[in-house]
Amino acid sequence: MSSQAGFTLRGRNPDVLTCIANLSNDEVFTPPEFANRMLDTLAEAWATDNKGATIWADKTVKFLDPCTKSGVFLREITRRLTQGLEKEIPNLEKRVNHILTKQVYGIGITQLTSLLARRSVYCTKHAKKTKQHPHSIATDFTDDDGNIWFRRTEHTWKEGRCPYCGAPKGIFDREGLETHAYALIHTDNVKARLAEMFGGNMQFDVIIGNPPYQMTGGGGGTNDSSIYHLFVEQAIRLDPRFLSMVIPSRWMAGGRGMDEFRKTMLGDRHLSTLVDYPNSAQVFPGVDLKSGVCYFLWNREHVGDCAVTLIRDNDVVGPTDRKLDEYDVFIRDERAAKILKKVLKKEEASFEDLLAGDTPFGLATNFTAFRQGEPDKDEVKLYASSNAGRRSGAVKRSIITKNTHLIDAWKVLAPQAGPGNSGGHVLPDMVLGRPSVAEPNSVCTQTWIVAGPLKSKKQAEIVARYLQTSFVRFIVSLRKISQHAMKGVYRWVPQQNWDQDWTDEALYKKYSITKDEIIFINSMVRPMSEDDDE
Question: Please, what is the Cα angle at 117 between 113 and 120, to 5 degrees?
Fold first, then answer.
């Protein structure tokens, strides 16, 4: 064993994998410390299922990182196996060679990351050891890729998009550019695909990694779509004994196209561990994912509740055994779940039923075809918004064809997003922007959703004040995992008797909220003051 190979197997400071910059917010490198946290969780579960045996002392276990970037998972697995198999395979060179050629496998997501991963695991981008390339710590590879595979994969186009990942043809079908077509998810038969990659019927005991989060390069808006769930689904189809991935927490309560994935995950009794970080910077320094991130452990042999831990800075809640599919979305904090049960126990009508939904009058946020000033005959007042704040004008009544029953009614405009609204990753949060009352003969753009029709100005003012209470905003926060507050986030907010005012004190009394629970609510939601604009 060369001195360089020996150096690679020892701990060293600084660790180069803590120093490299992320590719993007969607393809982030996993810090070694966090990768080891996930591996610790795996090792504990393996020991529980195998009478205390350590996974790192088993020379038959096969590991796959199906979306390797820096190679950190494969490197740390190799390090642990090198220590754990010392008695089984005393010779260091033979031990390392066995681990790298028989146990540790990866699929690079790009050519660059495949080279980086080989450098991390084999100490060189050339896995095959030759006189020209003598630095590989493996001796038996017959090609330079080793067990870290990468080939350029092309999208399949159907009606302008890739049916596997949703990539738009207009952006990605360009000669010479990185395709971002990831091999694992661009196939109808993932087992056959892996057999092509690694030469044989590969059955992996452990699949672990950090997949890309969105289809990269979409430029925002409708071009971006989440793809991390596709990696999870394909990995489960490979039927490993254990699967662990770190993914955005958005799937728990939101995310475009996440409904089926969320339903499947919450109902999957093989999920044994879920660790949730509402502040993504705790896991990926400098990366701001509004929903936070989580990692999970899927255990083929486990059938039962899931041990859930919430970690927010120094506040650790859990692990607590929970049934994930108690509701259609997942309530991240068990303390909040107990409060919600008190509210839902009364079985009152949902505030969601009062709401008109997205784009209430058919006018987009960027609608500008209106004039300044008060409405004339055959016109209605329009509430719009701009970077300068809320503004109003007049528009022809005849262009409004959606929710026309709300035009001449008193109503409340609830902002879909607002200043100080972090999406729940910075506490205490505003959760909602300030609502406002809109008079008869008025409409608004997509900036707001509309509650109505309401019987009078007084009733509308009561509803607007109700939406400003910490109680309501706390209940909304349980379904709201991003900055935007669409109609569905109000589903658990109960309707009240709108002939009387509702304060937090009155609501806490009505729903038997304890002092400790009030303290908890106040830690999550900050009071709305007169200085808070909508």
Answer: 140
What's the pLDDT tens digit per position in 91-125?
999 999 999 999 999 999 988 899 999 999 999 99
Euclidean distance between CA atoms 359 and 346, whole angstroms? 31
- β-bridge pairing 379-386 and 389-396: antiparallel
How do 104-108 and 148-149 pair as beta strands?
parallel
Distance separating alpha carbons of residues 153 and 110, to the nearest angstrom: 9
pLDDT, one tens digit per residue, over 356-414 is: 989 999 999 889 889 999 999 999 999 998 665 678 899 999 999 999 999 999 999 99
CB of 298 closer than 8 Å to CB of 271: yes
Q: Rounded to whole angstroms, how far apart are CA atoms 150 and 15?
A: 25
- By DSSP bridging, strand 379-386 and strand 442-444 are parallel
Nearest to 336, CA basis, from 480, 532, 433: 480
What is d(CA 75, CA 70) in angstroms, rounded to the nearest whole number? 9
Give me the phi and psi of 144, to 5 degrees please: -75, -20
Q: Which long-range contacts (CB under 8 A, 24 or more apart) does 416-422 make?
A: 416/358, 416/446, 416/447, 416/448, 416/449, 416/484, 416/485, 416/486, 417/483, 417/484, 417/485, 418/532, 418/533, 418/534, 419/532, 419/533, 420/526, 420/532, 421/483, 422/290, 422/483
Whether residue 243 contacts residue 190, with contact meaning beta carbons closer than 8 Å, is answered with: no
Q: Are 245 and 235 in contact (CB under 8 A)?
A: yes
Residue 130: partners with Cβ closer than 8 Å, 6 or more residues away: none
Q: What's the angle, vertex CA 145, arms to CA 142 and CA 148, rounded to 5?
A: 125
Spatial separation of the C-alpha atoms in residues 274 and 252, rounded to whole Å: 11
